[in-house]
C-alpha cells in the first residue's frame, strides 16, 4: 500500500494484511458460488449466508479484539473466519442443488469455464484494483485519513 515504514500504521497494517490474505481462497470461492446462484436465479440464498457470515464477524470481532485482547490480530481472524463460514455454507447449499464434480475428471470442460469466467475475473479484478488504489491513497495520508476511509 506504499505506507512508509515510519508510519504508526505500518506494523499493524502489515500484520492485518498478512493475516487477511489467509481468507483469499474463501473469498474467491464465495464470489464464484454467488455467481452460480445468480445463474440459478437465486439471490436469496447467498444474501442469507453472507448475512450469517457477517453476524459471525460481528460476534467474533469484540470477542477476539477485547475479550481475548488480540487487537488487530483478532480483527483479521474474525474477518477470515466469517469468510470461511460463508464459503462453507454456500458450497454446502450448492452441493444440495447440483453435482459439484463429474464422475470422472476427464469429463470436466475447462474451456467453457474459462470462457464464461473471463468476464467475472475482469469484473472482480477491476473492483479489487479500485479498492486497493483507494485504500493505498488513504493510507499514504496518515492514520486519520485511513480511519476515515475505513
From TrEMBL:
Keywords: Membrane, Transmembrane, Transmembrane helix. The chain crosses the membrane at residues 47-68, 75-95. Its main location: membrane. Belongs to the multi antimicrobial extrusion (MATE) (TC 2.A.66.1) family. This is Polysaccharide biosynthesis protein C-terminal domain-containing protein. GO terms for cellular component: membrane. The keyword Nucleotidyltransferase does not apply. The keyword Transmembrane applies. PANTHER family: PROTEIN DETOXIFICATION, PROTEIN DETOXIFICATION 44, CHLOROPLASTIC-RELATED. It comes from Triticum urartu (Red wild einkorn). It is found in: Membrane. InterPro entries: DinF-like (IPR044644). It is a multi-pass membrane protein.
Amino acid at each position: 500500500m506504499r505506507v512508509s515504514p515510519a508510519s504508526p500504521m505500518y506494523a499493524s497494517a502489515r500484520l492485518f494484511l498478512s493475516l487477511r490474505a489467509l481468507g483469499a481462497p474463501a473469498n474467491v470461492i464465495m464470489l464464484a458460488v454467488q455467481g452460480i446462484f445468480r445463474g440459478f436465479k437465486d439471490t436469496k440464498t447467498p444474501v442469507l449466508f453472507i448475512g450469517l457470515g457477517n453476524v459471525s464477524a460481528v460476534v467474533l470481532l469484540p470477542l477476539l479484539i477485547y475479550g481475548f485482547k488480540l487487537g488487530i490480530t483478532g480483527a483479521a481472524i474474525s474477518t477470515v473466519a466469517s469468510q470461511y463460514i460463508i464459503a462453507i455454507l454456500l458450497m454446502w447449499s450448492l452441493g444440495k442443488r447440483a453435482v459439484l464434480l463429474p464422475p470422472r475428471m476427464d469429463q470436466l470442460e475447462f474451456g467453457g469455464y474459462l470462457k464464461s469466467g473471463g468476464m467475472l475475473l475482469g469484473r472482480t479484478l477491476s473492483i479489487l484494483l479500485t479498492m486497493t488504489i483507494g485504500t493505498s491513497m488513504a493510507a499514504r495520508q496518515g492514520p486519520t485519513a485511513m480511519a476515515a476511509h475505513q
